[in-house]
Amino acid sequence: MAFWLDLMFGNPIGLLSMIVIFSTLGIISYLMWMFVVKSAPVK
């Protein structure tokens, strides 16, 4: 666990890759949420 924490937050490249991964997951979840909302039947 300490190895992964050092790899992720010990250098700028690891921190940048974590930012990219989490922002990508956020964008994907936002797009999926918009797809679900827009494809819901109109009441």
UniProtKB/TrEMBL annotation:
- Kindly list the residue ranges recorded as spanning the membrane: 12-37
Which keywords belong to this entry?
Answer: Membrane, Transmembrane, Transmembrane helix
Q: What InterPro entries does this protein map onto?
A: DUF3149
Origin: domain of life: Bacteria
Name the UniProt record assigns to this protein: DUF3149 domain-containing protein
